[in-house]
Design brief:
binds zinc ion
């Protein structure tokens, strides 16, 4: 009885250790490249970001176009700013990877990363972006579910637009707020309605998956750097040195030799310098 009891305690301890290690490595590991991972619930389908879940009461005022408008502008049927402050919903389960007032024509922006099982059976990732928001109600790292309110419809920075939602779906996880660095085509973006309509209901798999984060590139990946950087030469003649009288210079020279480095010698140097 005692033996069994001891064995089971030891076994439980071992399990606790194993799960502890797996938990640390698996859910928030960081690779050598600085890319790290978090976990989020696999998407069970994609809904519209307004008029949950089918965009009832809303329409696309301006659609997606390559080399043009890289997302969709959603407006309420009421027209004008009657839709200002309307709830904006996460299109699917995911994790918030960006939530900022970005200014520059964007205003409040939220980006959510989603993992879903594509038609090929593989797990794929996309980012959904919600722009010009009046209010952001989720923060980076937060897990969200399909249909969860993430903010409200706004008018952009300084209320510069008529209220609408600018909505994008990105295939390329590096884009972030640097759209100018990537092809403005369907190699980088999905046409939002086309993607949503093709993924309305996915097989129910209630599980967490590992999601890469910190994938936004800060600099242009296509920029060419030259190897040699030519710095202007600085001639030693232009170096400014303090002017020390020759006799003082000689004293310093003699007295700062290694052999002279004793308290007594330092004392005598001080006396000489002070003219005692
Ligand atoms: Zn837009």
């Amino acid at each position: 009885m005692t033996v069994i009891h001891c064995y089971s305690s030891a076994f439980r301890l071992l399990l606790a250790c194993l799960f502890g290690v797996v938990g640390l490595l698996g859910l928030s590991g960081e690779s050598a490249l600085g890319q790290s991972y978090t976990s989020a619930r696999l998407a069970d389908g994609f809904d519209y970001p307004v008029g949950k879940p089918d965009a009832y009461g809303y329409y696309v005022y301006r659609g997606f176009s390559s080399y043009g408008h890289l997302g969709e502008d959603w407006n309420g049927n009421g027209g004008g700013n009657s839709d200002e402050g309307d709830p904006i919903y996460s299109t699917a389960n995911g994790v918030v990877i960006f939530s900022e007032d970005y200014h520059k024509g964007w205003g409040n922006v939220i980006i959510i990363r989603h993992a879903y099982r594509g038609n090929n059976g593989q797990i794929s990732f996309i980012d959904s972006l919600y722009g010009h928001l009046k209010v952001r109600s989720v923060k980076v790292g937060q897990q969200v579910t399909r249909g969860q309110v993430v903010g409200t419809m706004g008018r952009g920075p300084y209320r510069m637009y008529a209220a609408h939602l600018h909505f994008e779906i990105r295939k390329d996880l590096r884009v972030g707020m640097r759209r100018e660095l990537y092809p403005k085509t369907t190699t980088t973006y999905h046409s939002p309605r086309t993607f949503i309509n093709a993924h309305r209901r996915l097989r129910l798999e209630d599980r967490l998956v590992r999601i890469p984060i910190n994938t936004f590139l800060k600099t242009n990946p296509n920029k060419i750097f030259s190897d040699a950087i030519n710095l202007p030469e600085v001639s030693s003649g232009t170096t400014v040195r303090p002017q020390v009288p020759a006799d003082i210079d000689l004293i310093i020279e003699e007295e700062t030799e290694a052999a002279a480095a004793t308290p007594e010698k330092s004392r005598s140097l001080l006396d000489k310098l002070l003219g005692r």
